[in-house]
Amino acid sequence: MKFKAKFYNVDSSEPRVIMHDDDCVELGVKEMDRVRIDGKNRSTVTLVSRSDTVVKKGVVLMSSDVMKRIDVKDGEEVNIENSPKPESVKSIRHKMDNERLSSTEIHEVVRDIAESKLSKIEVSAWLTALYINGMDVEEIADFTNAMVDTGDRMVFDRQPVFDFHSLGGVPGNKVTPIVVSIVAAAGLMIPKTSSRAISSASGTSDFVETFCDVELSAARIKEISETVGGTFAWGGAMNIAPVDDMVIRIEYPLGINPRAQMLASIMSKKIAIGATHLLVDIPMGSGTKVKTIEEARAYVRDFMDLGRRLGIQVECAITYADQPVGSAIGPILEAKECIKILEGEKHPSSVIEKACDLAGVILEMGGIPYGGEEARRILSSGEAHKKFMEIVVAQNGSPDLKADDLQPGKFKHDIVTAKSGYVHTIHNKTLVNIARAAGSPSDKGAGIMLNKKKGQRAEKGEVLFTIYADNEAKGLRAKEMAMRNPPLQIEGMMIERGSRSIR
Amino acid sequence: MKFKAKFYNVDSSEPRVIMHDDDCVELGVKEMDRVRIDGKNRSTVTLVSRSDTVVKKGVVLMSSDVMKRIDVKDGEEVNIENSPKPESVKSIRHKMDNERLSSTEIHEVVRDIAESKLSKIEVSAWLTALYINGMDVEEIADFTNAMVDTGDRMVFDRQPVFDFHSLGGVPGNKVTPIVVSIVAAAGLMIPKTSSRAISSASGTSDFVETFCDVELSAARIKEISETVGGTFAWGGAMNIAPVDDMVIRIEYPLGINPRAQMLASIMSKKIAIGATHLLVDIPMGSGTKVKTIEEARAYVRDFMDLGRRLGIQVECAITYADQPVGSAIGPILEAKECIKILEGEKHPSSVIEKACDLAGVILEMGGIPYGGEEARRILSSGEAHKKFMEIVVAQNGSPDLKADDLQPGKFKHDIVTAKSGYVHTIHNKTLVNIARAAGSPSDKGAGIMLNKKKGQRAEKGEVLFTIYADNEAKGLRAKEMAMRNPPLQIEGMMIERGSRSIR
User: Fold this and answer.
1) How many CB atoms lie within 10 A of CB B244?
2) Within this chain, do residues A397 and A429 fall inside the same structural domain, yes or no?
3) For residue A398, which of A410, A388, A412 has the smallest C-alpha distance?
4) What confidence tens digit (pLDDT) does each residue in B206-233 have?
5) Are the CB atoms for A113 and A106 separated by under 8 Å?
6) At which of B61, B83, B105 does a domain end?
7) B2/A contact by beta carbon, under 8 A
C-alpha cells in the first residue's frame, strides 16, 4: 500500500511508525506488529503504533531516524507492507522454554536487537529469560562473538595487547590510571577504556575527565597506545559492541544483569578492542555484586573458560570490597586521591596495594617476573607518574597538572560520631546513595571523604566523614540522608540495653 | 522543581512525560525512571523519557491523559519530584527468582499494571517470569482476586448466575448463541459475555455483531439477563478486570499466554460478572492450545481447584478439536450456520452435538436431570430459537432475522482436490490463516466454507472448501495461500513411489 511519509518528532528509543487504525486493519497489522517500508532505493522494517487521532488515513508518521534509514523526505511517498515477526522472536521463546540456542539463533537475536527490529517488550523478555534460564559457556562464547560482530574491531600494529576490567560495585575504586601508568611504564601496551557510572557514585571516566579528555576516537586511542603505551579513555565514543548500550537501557529499569549477558558484554568489548591478555578484577564483599568466595570462584571459572574458547589469555584477581577502596568517593575527590598517590603520597595504602597487585599480575602475564614488586618499584620511583603525565598530555590534559589544583565542592558537611568506639561496618551502597544525593557523578565536586575506615577507633564528636557538594540544596539533602541512615557503624560496649523502660 | 506543562500528542500506550536532559540530571532521573507530578489538587506518577531536542528546559511534555489525571491545562505550572521505583518491581524480581509471592505482592503488581505505573519493559519481564516460573494455585487465586479488584463487579438480583467459557483455539466454534438460548429457555439465567478474535478467524462477538448489537453496558446486560434470561454480549464494553486488556497488549507480541495469567484472567472475569456456576470448555486437539488429554486434565484440575478456593462451582468439558466445529469459518458464515441450526437445520451435527452437550452440563449444574437430552429437546422443539430471537431483539437485532438473509462475501474461490481419497488431516491454523488472509474477522463476509471434513471421501476435481471474501485482492491472496499450503490433506492409496526416477 502507498502512504505519504510525514515527519513526527517521537522519541526514538524504539524506532516505530504511527499509522491510522483503518490502514492497519487493511494491512492486517496490530499494535506492535512490524511493517516493511520501502523508500525509492532502500527498505527498512519497523514496529507499528496504531492511532485514530494523531494520524490521518493514508499517512505514516515517522521519526527522522526512520526517514534517514530509507532515504525519504517529509511528504514523499513510501510503500508499506505487513512484515512477519523476525525469526529471533522464536529464539527468545526457545530460551524462555529453557532450550539451548544455536550459534545462528544467538547471532540473529543480537543482530535484531542491534538493528532495532526487536521491541523493548521482546528485549525485556529475552533478558528475563536469560536471567532465569541462563546460558552454558558455549552459548556465552557465541553470544560474545555475536556482540563483537555488531560493531567495529580495533587492530593494533603493536602486539600483545594487555587490558583489564573490574566487575565493579566497590566505591572509590580509582586504581585504573595508576594500573595503566605502571603497566605502560613497564613497556607493555594497555589501551584501557572505561565506562561512566550507571548506578555508582563515579565511574573511571567520570573522574578521569576532571583532568583530561576521555572521549577519544578509536584512531586516537590506537595512536596514543602505540606511542605512549596506554590510555584511560571512555569506551562509549567508539562503536565497540554497540548492542550492549541498547541492552543496558532495558536492564536498568529491571535492575537485572543476567550473568550470560554480563560475561558476553565484558568479553565482547575486550575482543573488539583487540586484547590478547586480560586481567579481570572481581571485587568481593557484602555490599557488592559478588558476595561470597564461591560466587567469585564461579566467575573465575567462567572467565577462564570463556577466554580459552575465545582465544584470549585471561587471569582473574578476587579483591577485597567490604569497604571503599581508599578514602575518596566522587569525581574530583577520587581524581585528587589517585593523582596524589602517583605524585608519591603513601596514603591510603588500600589504593596503592590494589593498584600494584593488579598491575603486578599484568606484568607477569607480559613475562616480567616478580610483577608485584616491580609494580611497586615503578610507582615509588616516579616512573609511573612520568608515564601518567605523558598519557594525560596525550589526552589533552595540562602538563602542569597537580593533585592540589583539583578543588572539591565548596559546600561541606562534617558527619561526626555521637559515641566512641570502633568502626565495625561500612555500607557501600549507603555511601553511594549519599554521594549521588550530593550530586555525584554529574556534579564533579560532589562526593564523600572518609576520615575513618573499618577497624579504626573514633572518639565521640570526631569526624567520621565529610560530604562535599557543588550545590547547597543537594549537600543538605545528602547530609539529611546520612543522618537518617548512617553508612558507618560504631561498635560501642553495649549493643542493646535490656532493662525495664524508663518512665 | 517547578515546570510548565505542555500538551504533547504522544501515543499513550504507556503514559510518560518527556523532560529535558538537564532537568532530568537535576532531578536525578534516568530514562524510564519515574516522577511524581503534582497539579494544584491532584498528583500522579509517570515514567520519564529524556530528550534534548523535543523539549526545552523547564518544560514538561505530557499527553492529554496525564493532564486529565492531575487536572492541569496546557501552560499551567506543575511540581515534579523524583519518585522511587514502586515496590511491585521488587515483586517481579522475586518471581524472576522463582519465589512464591504473597497476596499483598500480587495485588501490588496487578494494581500497578492497572494504574500504568509499570512500564512495558517491566510488564514484559513479569509475564516472562510467570511463563517460566509459574504460580501455585493459591497464588493464582490471589492473582484472580487482584484482577477482579481492578474493575467493576456485577451484582444480579436473580440468582444463581450460570456462565461458560471456552479456552478456544478451534475454528468455527459458533456454539455460544445456541448454548445460551437453550440454557435461558430452560429457565436458567446466563449473562454470557464473549471476546473478539485476537489471533483466530472470528470470535463470538465478531459473528454475533453481524445480526445484533454486542456492545452493551453492564446495566443493559443485567436487565436483559434478568428479564429474558441470557445475553451474548461483548465483554469489552464493561469495566470488568480491565488489567487483562493491558496485559494482552504485551502478551501478543511475545506470543505467550502464561498459564497463571490465563487462569486468573478467565476466573477474574467470571467472578467480576457474578457467576456462581461456571462450565469451562477445553477444546483438545493437535492444532489447538491444549494438545493432549493429560494437558486437558491438568487444566480441569486447576479450574476445579481454583473454583473451590474462589467460591464458584466449576465443571469442565474436554471437547474434540482436531478439526473445525461445523463447516463455516468467518463472521457471516458462522452466524448463518449457527442461526440455521436454531431454525431447525440438522446439519452440521458437530455443532449441534457440542452445543447440546455443553448446555446439558449447565442444565445439570442447575438441577435439571438428563441435561443433554433436555437440551436436545429444547433445541428441536423450537424453544431455543424462540429464546434466541428474544435475546436478539433485546440486543437491537431484527425481529425478522433469518439465516438466509445473511450474505457472505461476493468473491468466491472453490478449492478442488487434485486426487481422489479420504481427508485424513485438517490443519486448523492453516485454515485460520487463510480466512484471515481473506479478510476475516474485520471483513464480515470473509471466510471459509468446508465441503469435506475428516474421514470423508473426495473424488478428484471435487470441491474441498470455498473461500469467501468482500475484497477481490484479499480473496486472491487467500486462494494463493491455500494452494501453496493445503489445509486439508487427502489420503490416496500411495504415500510415496519407491521406483527409480523417470528419465
Assistant:
1) 24
2) no
3) A388
4) 999 999 999 999 999 999 999 999 999 9
5) no
6) B83
7) no
Among candidates B317, B365, B378, B350, which has minimal Cα distance to B454?
A: B350
Instruction: Give the CATH number for residue B46.
Output: 2.40.40.20
Please indicate, yes or no, if residue A59 is contained in any of the structural domains. yes
**Same-domain pairing of A436 and A365:** no
> What is the C-alpha to C-alpha distance for residues A61 and A9, in angstroms, rounded to an integer?
9
Minimal Cβ distance to B121: which of A85, A124, A131: A124
| Interface size, chain A vs chain B, as Cβ–Cβ contacts under 8 Å | 113
Evaluate whether residue A146 is within a structural domain.
no
Q: Are residues A213 and A318 in the same domain?
A: yes
Structural domains in chain A (count): 4
CB-based contact A109:A142 (threshold 8 Å): no
ipTM: 0.82
- What is the rounded distance in angstroms from the CA atom of residue B238 to the CA atom of residue B282? 25
Q: How far is CA A171 from CA A253, A258, A324, A331, A428, in A?
A: 22, 22, 5, 11, 6
**Structure-block grid coordinates of residue B392:** 436478539
Helix B87-96 to helix B103-114 angle (10° resolution) is: 120
B54–A contact, CB cutoff 8 A: yes
| pLDDT tens digits along A261-301 | 999 999 999 999 999 999 999 999 887 889 999 999 999 99
DSSP state of B405: G
The answer to whether residues A74 and A216 belong to one domain is no
Cβ neighbours of A93 in B, within 8 Å: 254-256
Range of B77's domain?
Answer: 2-83
Contact call for B125 and A128, based on CB within 8 A = yes
b/e B176-214 (16+ beta carbons within 10 angstroms → b): bbbbbbbbbbbebbbbbbbbbbeebbbbbbbbbbbbbbb
Once rounded to an integer, what is the mean pLDDT over residues B322-345?
96
Strands B277-284 and B313-320: parallel
Find where cell 459475555 sits.
B193
Task: Give the CATH number for residue B106.
Answer: 1.20.970.10
Q: What per-residue confidence (pLDDT) applies to B501?
A: 45
CB A234 within 8 A of CB A195: yes
Residues of A within 8 A of B31 (CB-CB) are 13, 249, 252
Q: How far is CA A375 from CA A185, A229, A352, A403, B227, in A?
A: 9, 15, 10, 21, 91
Residue A248 lies in a domain: no
CATH of the domain at B180: 3.40.1030.10
- The H or E element spanning position B468 is strand B463-469
Length, in residues, of chain B: 503
